[in-house]
Amino acid sequence: MLSQYQGFLGAAYLWVKAAHLTFVIFWIAGLFIVPRYYIHHQATTPGSAEDRAWIEREDRARTIILTPAMLIVWVLGLMLAIHLNIFSQGWFMAKLVLVILLTGYQGWITSYGRKLANGHRALDDKRLRMMNEVPGILTALIVVLVIVRPF
After folding, report:
1. Most buried among 20, 120, 133, 150, by the most CB within 10 A?
2. How far apart (Å, rounded) are the C-alpha atoms in residues 119 and 44?
3. Model confidence pLDDT, tens digit, residues 80-104
4. Which of 48, 37, 62, 21 lies closest to 146, judged by CA?
């Protein structure tokens, strides 16, 4: 097996890995907070001052935290995968599928935020609260895949 320092990243490998993990934390934090905002936002009257404040908060969280963190996670993660040449490893491919699902979940919460901003309350509170559990479950599975590498 090659040393972790051999590959196109060289000695920068650990820095890229640290940055990747840092931005994963930011991304997952955003995936937790934005749907929680929606739970509170959904209780407001469409068009009210409180509704507009939630719309602004959600937009800032998505544009300042969520989207940039997700993009950086993808770029750094792919750099690490190329550096380590792990595309043929089962645990990594399973992780990649889960990260794609998290990215899709982010697309869904962005779409739901637009609906809320337009006054549509498509989900009841219970279903919205259940959807808030998705990133936690996927993150736990990803951590197990990365640490345990079961296959």
Report:
1. 20
2. 10
3. 999 999 999 999 999 999 999 999 9
4. 21
Contact 53, 128 (CB under 8 A): no
- Cβ atoms of 6 and 45 within 8 Å: the answer is no
> Is 123 within 8 Å of 112 (Cβ atoms)?
yes
**SS3 of 114-132:** HHHHCCCCCCCHHHHHHHC
pTM score over 0.90: yes
Q: Which residue has the tokens 């800032």?
A: 60
Q: Record the tokens describing residue 122, joined without a space.
A: 């498509």
Asked whether the beta carbons of 9 and 79 are under 8 A apart, the reply is: yes
